[in-house]
Design a protein that fits this description.
With 327 residues, this protein is an alpha+beta fold. The protein has two domains: 165 residues, no CATH class; 127 residues, Ubiquitin-like (UB roll) (Roll). Helices cover 30% and strands 19% of the residues. It contains eleven helices and twelve strands. The radius of gyration is 28 Å and the shape is elongated. 20% of the residues are buried. Belongs to the peptidase C19 family. GO terms for molecular function: cysteine-type deubiquitinase activity; cysteine-type endopeptidase activity. It comes from Salix viminalis.
Length: 327
């Protein structure tokens, strides 16, 4: 297992059996094992392995609650794609056995993983644990992964299988939590011309970091003017368009608002309904179809409608003076 102290990345071989471990547990183990002197006493000892592995499986279906990490081909080597957000890390079968012996794990309860090419994975959808070939030794060569020109997107097949239902439900809760925000920053850029530059399309398609302070003041860019706005998940698209009108001078009816390449419409919808997150970068075009008018006229109309809500129903039964019974 010394390879895990010295090498955080090692090449994989297709059709070999590996195991998945919680990345957080491995980090804790690495810090504890590599500590020396005073650092050893201050390092937190990793938990017993058996309940840690059990926690990776859902109680309802006994399936895997986390998706396996992504793989990448780097200079002919098939390796795990480095990401700080990966919940799981791939280890060799020998390392898994050693972990079980030293940290109270059950060898038979491990999360097995086999790396296959996409076409092989499709033909093995009905396979079972016994079908999975095993490599007893740490692979010293990656010829299988690099010599086949057809291998572009290898697939990790796990036993137990991934629980799509539970993962989907958890992601739905996480998404709802992210969209329940208040007084956060987004930016809107006014783009002149028929097409947005590639740089702003890419920025608009990705969610930006939200931990930086942003000024509401507009600023000039190479493609137009950009402003930062304070919004909430409950902010309506109508309200956002009014803010854009006020700061960028584009009449509400002329605004063609985009997130990436997608046009955002439906003025009654909220930003949460439209999956607009804190830090998002939107861009707007001016269709110039409608004549420019003062935003004060729109605000005055709003106030008039708010003061006389029955104005549009005069002459109909909806204006009856009959009192409704108390509820």
């Amino acid at each position: 297992m010394k390879s895990w102290l010295l090498e955080r990345v090692f090449p994989f071989v297709l059709n070999c059996t590996y195991y998945l471990m919680p990345s957080s547990w491995l980090t804790k183990w690495r810090n504890y094992t590599s500590g020396s002197g005073k650092n050893t006493s201050s390092s937190v000892e990793p938990e017993v392995l058996d309940p840690v592995i059990d926690a990776l499986k859902c109680e309802q279906h006994s399936r895997l609650l986390e998706s396996p990490p992504d793989l990448m081909n780097k200079r002919g080597m098939l390796i795990q794609k480095s990401s700080s957000t990966d919940a799981l890390t791939i280890i060799t079968e020998n390392d898994w056995i050693s972990f079980c012996e030293e940290w109270g794990g059950n060898k038979e309860k491990g999360i097995m993983a086999i790396i296959e090419s996409s076409d092989v994975a499709e033909s093995n959808l009905g396979g079972c644990e016994e079908d999975m070939p095993r490599c007893k030794d740490h692979p010293s060569s990656q010829d299988e992964a690099s010599n086949d020109p057809e291998i572009r997107q290898p697939v990790i097949r796990t036993t137990p299988e991934i629980c799509e239902d539970c993962i989907g439900e958890r992601k739905s809760h996480e998404l709802a939590k992210k969209l329940n925000y208040f007084n956060e920053d987004i930016s809107v850029s006014l783009v002149r011309g028929k097409e947005a530059p590639r740089s702003i399309l890419e920025a608009s398609s990705a969610t930006s970091e939200t931990d930086r302070r942003a000024s509401k003041r507009s600023r000039k860019t190479s493609y137009g003017t950009s402003v930062n706005l304070k919004v909430s998940g409950s902010t309506s698209l109508y309200r956002l368009k009014m803010m854009i009108w006020e700061l960028l001078g584009v009449v509400k009816e002329n605004q063609i608002l985009h997130k990436g390449s997608m046009i955002i419409d439906q003025e009654s919808a909220t930003l949460a309904d439209l999956s607009i997150f804190p830090g998002d970068k939107l861009w707007v075009q001016d269709s110039e179809i409608h004549e420019h008018r003062d935003i004060a006229d729109e605000i005055a109309d709003q106030k008039a409608n708010a003061q006389d809500p029955e104005k549009g129903f005069r002459g109909t039964l909806l204006t009856t003076t009959t009192k409704s019974p108390a509820v």
